[in-house]
Write a structure and sequence with these properties.
Layout: H1 9-25, H2 29-42, H3 48-61, H4 67-82, H5 86-103, H6 116-126, H7 132-147, H8 163-177, H9 181-191, H10 199-222, H11 227-241, H12 252-269
Helix pairs in contact: 1-2, 2-5, 3-4, 4-7, 6-7, 9-12, 10-11, 10-12
Length: 270
């Protein structure tokens, strides 16, 4: 079926999150702030977009469950979706689409979202105009995905072989996919922190800074060579200690990513 991704709430959200990740890695503060403003204004707790996004997440994130439970979850999400004000949802989507086009540009719609196929299938299930036969097939595919073990049978969509996607993937891979897992987690935790006013991110940050400081302290105490390397390590340790008395700022993001890479190199060389 032809799918209008601009009317797919989950695709809009995932595209914004990926765009935010790129802006953070590129240290583009202006674009980062524009994206955060769009997310905070449009995906608010209790809002129609957030309500529909929650239904998408139930179907996408549920894995390794029993078939009967998967079928019941699908049924209940369909019932819940029918209760959403359709006109209000259309208006909310129109607003976020307008905000994106005005402040970020149409290139955002070319973002590659790995689970796009699943999001498109769910959108077709929620769409009352989808032919019955096709809807049944989409529903069975989603149920199969919910029953399958996590990260085992998930088939991620491959990018379409055209110039726009190839160019995007190349740029995105250069900036994001080369990051360490701990660097990706740091960025992703920050990206979604607006949803709970940063509570979960602050908890994670305290734990991560503790891990980094412990690793650096061990490096200082076991380094017998001394000299410049030891002095620089102590300087980084002092930098991390500063967060006891101040909040994380935009300029700190790149530095923390670098510290994470330093720790990985120290562990590799042990």
């Amino acid at each position: 079926m032809k799918h209008n991704k601009k009317r797919n709430t989950a695709f809009i959200y995932e595209s914004l999150v990926r765009e935010l990740t790129k802006s953070i890695v590129a240290q583009n503060v202006t674009r980062r702030n524009d994206i955060l403003d769009i997310l905070k204004e449009n995906f608010v707790a209790g809002g129609l977009l957030m309500e529909e996004l929650g239904l998408y997440r139930i179907l996408v994130e549920t894995k390794n469950t029993q078939p009967v439970i998967a079928e019941k979850l699908l049924h209940e999400t369909k019932v819940a979706h029918r209760q959403i004000d359709a006109d209000g949802l259309f208006g909310a989507q129109s607003k976020v689409i307008g905000d994106i086009n005005k402040h970020l540009g149409a290139t955002l719609w070319n973002n590659f979202v790995s689970n796009y196929k699943s999001l498109a299938s769910i959108n077709a299930i929620f769409n009352g105009k989808t032919p019955v036969k096709k809807k049944v097939l989409f529903e069975q595919a989603i149920i199969d995905s919910m029953v399958s073990p996590k990260n085992t049978n998930q088939q991620k969509m491959k990018p379409v072989d055209n110039l726009v996607y190839r160019s995007f993937i190349a740029k995105f891979n250069d900036k994001y996919n080369t990051l360490l897992e701990e660097q990706k987690e740091f960025l992703n935790k920050y990206i979604v922190s607006f949803a709970d006013d940063g509570a979960e991110f602050n908890l994670y940050l305290n734990q991560e800074l503790g891990r980094l400081k412990k690793a650096l302290y061990e490096s200082v105490t076991t380094n017998e060579d001394g000299g410049l390397i030891r002095d620089k390590t102590e300087a980084v340790l002092n930098y991390l200690e500063e967060f006891r008395t101040r909040q994380l700022e935009q300029a700190d993001f790149q530095k923390i990513l670098q510290v994470q890479e330093l720790i990985r190199e120290l562990n590799t060389n042990d």
